[in-house]
Amino acid sequence: MQILLLLFIVFLSYATRAAIIIGTWSGGFQQAVQAGAAQLGQGGSSLDAVEAACRTCEELQCDGTVGYGGSPDEHGETTLDAMIMDGTRMNIGAVAALRRVKNAIGVARKVLENTKHTMLVGDQAKHFAVSMGFPEESLTTPDSKHKWRAWRDNRCQPNFWTSVKPDPKTSCGPYKPLSFAHRLDKDTDSNADIGQYNHDTIGVVAIDARGDIAAGTSTNGTKHKWRAWRDNRCQPNFWTSVKPDPKTSCGPYKPLSFAHRLDRDTDSNVDIGQYNHDTIGVVAIDARGDIAAGTSTNGANHKIPGRVGDSPIPGAGAYAETGVGGAAASKMS
User: Fold this and answer.
1) Each residue of 283-292: b (16+ CB within 10 Å) or e?
2) What global pTM score does this model have?
3) CB–CB of 3/278 below 8 Å?
4) What whole-number distance in Å separates Cα of residue 34 and Cα of residue 38?
5) What is annotated as the active site (predicted)?
């Protein structure tokens, strides 16, 4: 998981208090924040400012990661996620995997204001949007078509499949799940020698004539006939996430740094970067002191259709509480 947060801030001074809006990134994102600031400058609410900022980014297709024509899924279709949160009333509206409607943040606000629900998804979210007056139109562009075809021509690399056959690192599928035995064999740490004679225990359970039950165990633990094991560079052993490499060394070991573990654990089949996934995240405080927050994104490039990211999830993509504060973040998952 990679978490990214960059802020552009606008302050607007009033006689009683300052209205503030912050948002992620620069470029088109900065223009979006300025659109939100214009709403605040006209006396608009924090909800108006957040919606205006996210809508502007959707229209500008900020970095290709927000709005239509970006991040095509495995079928070549762009879908949108968005949320908006009213930090005064603690109400939320969100949409996810929204198809064929460009103004995702506008639909999210309709969920907030015109339903008792928190989130609508997929085709049903599209039907709701159309009923609320939003036009239905394709979100595909020549650029998104080109990206999708190039990805297909590259054997669908990278992708988000795991524990399937054929191998998702060399094939476009269609995929079927691996059997449990196959997954167990694949996931077993090759540095651990597992078998009856390198570890075991006597375990006993007894019930007596009165119906009383007792249980017990006895063992001498896992083996390593010490000298031969040391001569074999302490192989196998039970260390992990340490340096030097426990597969080639006897130590002494020190824990890896968090950054080193994160880099090591990241799936090499997933390309993580600013331009293959991102979000506009916005937090605004209006002249009345009300706080709102929101996000909008077209998700991860080449995602499996139906995937919902963190951005439209309250408390993950954004959160606001008047009198306390607000936050927005972007991550890969």
Assistant:
1) bbbbbeebbb
2) 0.73
3) no
4) 6
5) 279
Nearest of 245, 244, 249, 221 to residue 234 by alpha carbon: 249
Catalytic pick among 56, 88, 279, 297: 279
SS3 63: helix
Check pLDDT > 50 for residue 258: yes
Indicate whether 147 pLDDT > 50: yes
> How many angstroms separate the CA atoms of 78 and 69, rounded?
6
Strand partners for 13 = 18
Is position 170 annotated as part of the catalytic site?
Answer: no
- Determine the length of the chain: 333
For residue 298, the number of C-alpha atoms closer than 13 Å in the C-beta half-sphere is 35
Give the confidence band of 3 by pLDDT, cuts at 50, 70, 90: very low
Task: Give 188's DSSP letter.
Answer: S
DSSP H helical ranges for the chain: 28-41, 46-60, 104-114, 122-131, 142-153, 180-187, 226-231, 258-265
Residue with tokens 């063992």: 219
Q: What is the rounded distance in angstroms from the CA atom of residue 213 to the CA atom of residue 147?
A: 65
- 64 near 146, Cβ under 8 Å? no
* SS3 (DSSP) at 88: coil
Residue 297: which H helix or E strand, with range? strand 291-297
